[in-house]
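>> Question from a student workshop board

For tomorrow's exercise we were told to take the sequence and the ligand below, predict the bound structure, and bring the output to class. My setup keeps failing. Could a helper post the expected result so I can at least see what it should look like? The ligand is alpha-D-galactopyranose.
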Amino acid sequence: MLHTADLGRRFKSFFPDSTEIWGCRVPGRVNLIGEHLDYNGLPVLPVALERALCCVFAKAAGGTVSLANANSMYRADAFENVAEIAPSPQAHWSNYCKAALIGLNRALRVSTFPGMQLLVSGNLPSGAGLSSSSALVVACALAYLQVLGVRLGKDVSRVALAELLAGAEHYVGTRGGGMDQAVILNARAGHALKIDFFPLRLEHAPLPRGCSLYVCDSGMRVEKSGDSLHRYNAGPALCRVLTALVEKQTQEEIDEGFRLARLGELCHGLLCLTYREAEELCLRSVPDARWSVKAIAARLGTAPDEVRRRYLGETPEPAEGFPLQARLRHVMTEFKRVELARDALLAGDTGTLGELMNASHESCARDYEISVPALDDLAGAAHDAGALGARLTGAGFGGATVNLVPDAREGQFHEHMARYYAEWRMNAAQCMFKTLGGGGADYFGVLST
Ligand code: GLA
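>> Workshop helper replied:
Here is what the output should look like for this input. Compare the format with yours to find the bug.
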């Protein structure tokens, strides 16, 4: 990671005319447990990393936003800050900056649109499932707030900003939930963050003593706004169908006028069901393992085209039908695991936490089908190396695993994983790192004037 003075110099080499230069540090995250729950309004338990993006920025004279990246993979770009900013081609990195600006312009009713210059750098790998994309959105948002003179934590709260940016990021095409923005902005060093949604509620839980968290990169890249976009969006799409099926069942059983916006509302909304009641209602709502669009339409009393338009979007229909029962099983069992994991963290019960992580990986792989052989192998290797728990983390389809390793087995873990990576001609020192839980995003002040 570059030092502050180097960052200032680097910035000046890209933008020599800049005067007052600011910076912000925005961490990545690793999710301990609770995958693909956030968009269902169900809780998650992520941890912010020490690894972070650094964004150095300055206000520009006109309305142009100029972006540069210390990583030459990401080409410099510039666009005009206007009321309606047109997106760059899909997966272009400047879309994340545009998403932040559009979201803030709307929410803060900005009417004269200032320009800015940004240089992004840092040690957070991109496409490794560690939320580098949301970190970029948050970094650009913090820069823009500073340029607008809006104070974080005073004029706009961290929680409100996290909620706003979760919605704003949909501009890039991925229909993510709000986990990443919430933990990036609100994490506390040494803690995991239990997040409940709609509205956002946060609880800090200390990471356990006697164990460490290791992040292991599979080397398989996942660009959420690139190739993985449709695979990711299939998750929220099928959950929208599930929500409609459960709503239908509830209308028949309890109240004709009942509306269910998300599965999470079963336990927290008007119904306030116990976990057992919600689980049983879900089972009655989705009695078959696989559902064709025709079968979903028949059950909802609507036309197949309407099902595609309202819920499925571009999600292709598999010949054998959508595995709705398995998807729902993951959502409900993962929900329970998050609650138990939070209790285990507070009790310092690392054995239980490890078992819950392992069960989560199984459920992600078997029922949500977001694992790939590289992640299964990596989690398997971590078990052999002595981890109490190992699971894929983030959206899935590649990226990294998170591993709970007892301090007494750290040496053995390193040796074993080094051999594993060497077999794949990968360098363990580059692919694996430990986290003690980082703090939330923040500014680091003026660099030079
Ligand atoms: C991505 C999304 C999150 C969340 C995870 C899966 O990281 O950005 O909102 O859905 O996938 O848990």
